[in-house]
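Q: Fold this one first, please.
A: Sequence and structure below.
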Amino acid sequence: MSVFGEYKIDGNQLVAKETGIAIPLTPGFARDALSIASFIWLVNGVRASRVLKRRGPRARISFFPKKPRSFYAIWPVCHLADVKITDDHAAADLHFYFEDREFLTAPRRAPTAKPAFNVGCFDIRKSVVARVFEETFGYALAIDPRNWRGPAVEKSEGNGRHDGHVIDCPIAAPKRDHVYQRLVENTFDGRDHIDIRTPIVGGKIPFVYLKRRKPALRFSNENYRVDLVDADALLSPDEQRKISAFAAAMHLDFGGIDVLRDRGDGRIYIVDANKTDMGPPSALKSQDKLKAMRGLADAFSAMVDGAVAKAGG
């Protein structure tokens, strides 16, 4: 059975055809789907009001090799930023590399010589994220499980698996296609685990999502609460500069970065980067969802205007 063309139902799971990522069909998933649908309806309402006012687009953008569905963050952002999505690459002012894959052996070529976003972001495997993080921040997340002593995290190399778990090191035989990382004690109070989901748009951090999880679900994507927070409240200016430098090194013009702060040493660690971000989180309050997308749209508008001006000048 096909769902949205890119997903299928297999038993009690929703499976992405391209990546094989499986999402359990639970009551929580149903609530999330309803929340996403309601948000899309809201964005369409805002979009319709702008059409009635006969506001022309600030630019036209084409996606390659695929066009995002409405549940990806870039879709509402384009509509709220007055950036028209077109299938005609030749008529577009800009291109956007969009493909829900974490690894290619080389970047895809943009359809034309016009500016293209995310075009160099073709390898976001966790080992690459850890390497670029260490090069940018000067300290390591990755560990060698054969020499490390104490607890560590073992997880799949690919994105979206949410299969991380704690192991005791050293171990004799690391698993193939897995990564091993230091255990970041990302709690404020020793109880709830905190993920600082950090949107990045043209090197800017418009805000962060503060995502809270219970200990049993610390490696999952199930948040019992999400708050929209000013970036300056959680990240120092130096940390924000380094996150932007990390994004630049990853060629991530638009996406989301998962940041954890260790309770012990106080430092932040980047554990994941996503170039096909879904959003906003379903646990975020409805009024904050639109506020977040407007913030992303403002940052995206600035990035688009800058790219179009540079290309024309």
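Q: Good. Now the second chain.
A: Here it is, same layout.
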Amino acid sequence: MEKLREKFHSVRFKLFSVLCAVIIFLIICLIGINSIVFKTFYMHAKTRAIQELYEKINHYYESPSLDVNLEAELKKIAFKNNFDILIKSDTDLILFTTDRDFLSSLTRITDATKVEEITGRRKDIIAQNENVMIRKMNDETNNTNYILLSGTLVNGYQLYIRIPIAPIEESVRISNNVLLLIGFLTILVSSLIVSFISRRFATPIMQLNEITNRMAKLDFSKKYRISDSNDEINELGKNINTMSDKLERTIKQLRETNIELEKDIEEKSKIDEMRKQFISDVSHELKTPIALIQGYAEGLVENVNTDDESRKFYAEVILDESNKMDQLVKQLLELMKLEYGKREFNDKPFDIVELIHEVIRKCHVMIEEKQVEVLFESKGPIEVYADEFYIDQVITNYFTNAIKHVKVKNGKKQIKITIEPNEQKQKVRVTAFNTGEQIEEENLKRIWGRFYKVDSSRNRENGGSGIGLALVKAIQNNYQNDYGVQNVEDGVEFYFDIDIKN
């Protein structure tokens, strides 16, 4: 139904409809004109024919010629034009007639004329002057209509010319039927011609319509096929192709500009979010050290303790808290840059085994204090690809975290570091296990948040800032590598993956 409706609204159908309407209108006009004018024209033609014959006969009697045989000439004219001719002398002597029955008919006509003259009713007179009268007559004997000319010649003779006329309505009907037939044939032939012509014009228009519809949907893939004809449609197709190319380039530029703008807006939003988060974190975490610094500083000012040893202790606390504040702010800034993609990594190959040995060496004092057994065995160097500085932070955070939480379990107080290469995934997994209490399931995901501490009772000296694991998470997310923690037998195991190659 929809396709049928589209066809009715197509250019081809409209062109065909308009042409048919024009042809039908012309046929109707011709039929109307024929019905109105044909009768008048027919009567005028017949009247003119007998008038010319009268003038010709009158001219003969006016200027007789021995070269012309009037009787033979009149018979020829009568036969050619279907005329009945009768000439009478002034003594009612019949001089010439082409039809013997014409005289009897003429007698009836004359009697009818006398009756009309007496009653004063003269009808069906077509033309009349001093010598000639032309009228339309009806012969009731044979039910035939005639045009009758009765006139007086120059020599006094009476001339009668009769010409039969067909019923004018019948002639009009016949001619109208002919016009209808011509109209039907014209529409039939025209439909074939219009179908061919409209296809030639409608096809490129339909193509242009499809192109513009696609352009409205921002699809500029289809182009108009340029032909050899140098007409307006071809020129329109060229212009639409040009417009399509320009729009495509413009929209592409707008999209690129929009993407850049979105990136700028997103960047600004990240910076604003980072600033708000940094301010929130700093204001939250610096309350305690600032309070301690303020308290001990007031004690020094007010000389709460007069001895040098106490004043030295106060000063050391202030210095220690200041260092912690400085370290905390630096860690926060680093975490913000990692989380919001503001840190560029200096990736290069390095030996992960050597790095782990270096971290263990740096933490030697803490290991001795905790009296921990550290187990790390490696058969040889393992080269990985990353930023050594940040991988050092990951390992250090895992290792120091293990030292802080290690406890005796089943007679063992151990930290075990292992390296498991995975050639198929082109990764190396580093694990850090420590004996001790397991982490509750509900806290396994929470520990990766900034400032989250599982043991809220830990003192400030051993508890740390709570940023270390958040840094690990940010670093691993930047590398899109796996990391996590799981409870295992006798303790907890942290792990992270690192790429072997670029």
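Q: Anything worth noting on the second one?
A: The first strand starts at residue 84 and ends at 88.
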